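Q: Got a minute? One more chain.
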Amino acid sequence: MSNTNFKKRILAVDDTAVVLTRILYTLQDAYDVITINSGERALKYLKENKPDLILLDIRMSPMDGIETLQSIRTMEGREDIPVIMLTGVEDRDIVLKSAKLGIGDYIRKPFSSEELIKRIRRVFDQENQKQAEKEQKQAEEERKQVKDDE
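A: Always. Here it is, folded:
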C-alpha cells in the first residue's frame, strides 16, 4: 500500500451502538475506524494495536471513560495516543479530570458530523505540530553536538 492511500486509524469507544454507527458512517471515507463498545475491550485491543486517535465516551459501564483513559495512560507505547472524550452531560469535574489526563479535546453529544470532523482535524493538526517541533529540536541538538565535536 502506498503512502497516498494511508488512512489514519481511529478507535471509537462507546457503549451505545447508535453512536458508534454514526461515528463509523461519518468517518469511514477519510479514516480507518475501529468501533468497540466497552472500555475493557478497548484496553484489550490496545495491547496489540496503536491507533492514531481515540474517541472515548465518558459514561460507560462497568468501566467508564475516565478509568479507561487512566489505564491507557499507563500502557507502554500507548500513553501518548491523542484522545477526544465524548460526553452526553456537562460535568465540569469530569472534563477537568480528563483534561489532567491529557485529552486533546472533548465533544458534547449529540454532535454534528461537521463538528466531529473539525475536532478530529484540529487534534491531528496539534499532533503534527508537536511532531514537527520535536524533530526541529532534535535537529538543533544534533547540529549543536556536531559543532561541539569540532
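A: Strands lie at 9-13, 32-36, 53-57, 83-87, 105-108.
Q: Perfect, thanks.
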